[in-house]
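Ticket #4471: structure export looks truncated?
Reporter: QA, pipeline team
Priority: medium

Steps to reproduce: submit the single chain below to the structure queue and open the exported record.
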Amino acid sequence: MTTAALLLVLASALCHASWNFLLKRSGHKVSFMASAGAVGALVFLAPAVVVTLDRGLGRDGLALCVVTACLHGLYGLSLSRGYHIGDLSIVYPVSRGSALALIPLLAVVLLGETISGLAWIGIALVLAGVYSIHLDPRALGDLLAPVRGLSGPAGRTALLTGGIIAAYSLWDKNALEEVSPLTLNQFAMVGHFLVLSPLLMMDSGRRVRSEWRASWRAILAAGVLIAMAYLLVLAALTTSEVAYIAPSREIGIVFGTIFGAVLLSEGYGRTRIAAALLIVAGVLLLAVAP
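Actual output as written to the record:
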């Protein structure tokens, strides 16, 4: 992975963990997510239109973008549900970590990419950190506790979210061969809003209006961070393979864990942060892997 790609991924990870933190703190998660998606769609609307008109968007490119919009909308819906029923320091690492386990294998099978031995060691360290982050420090001998935790509603939703993350990561990597990052990012942001907006109309929009009154500053901030986070990772994907970019982005798990354990007081802070250091070690190996 190039140095430029690593810096882009680190910036993306911090933006991503930050807007997830804001989403978790919100009152009505679906209203917040849809609203932030609408803001994100507006942030880069003008440059996205200019780039799309300049490069053009044929029938195949449009089809790729529509699928991207649908996948990202489903991701926003699943993630909102996960934060409604689970902790940030649990849902975030499970969803990102399960995606990490799927992406390299699928990238090799579907995209023909290759992964070095050093990169596999890095991925293994990241997975070990994701697993360890769910251990209860009061019962460290119970190594199956994280597995049982995944069988609950929050765990199942997080795993579903991880599957969607893996799907859109691979789809968008392929779409970048036909579509510019700005255009693809724009469709992803619109997808967040369009897929979630019908749910907001079930109560005539009362919840979304209430969420704007209570959290308009956080919604605006999250909208900008969502747009920036994915645009940065799309830019990184144009310089390196998805099998390396996607795992490296998961350093955001460290940021998300700290936000949840320290700022939201979700508990087990030292254990979860220590486990997050394994993820950092894995990311560093991925960064230097050929």
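Status: closed, not a bug. The export was complete when the record was re-opened. Leaving a note from the reviewer for reference: The mean pLDDT is 84.
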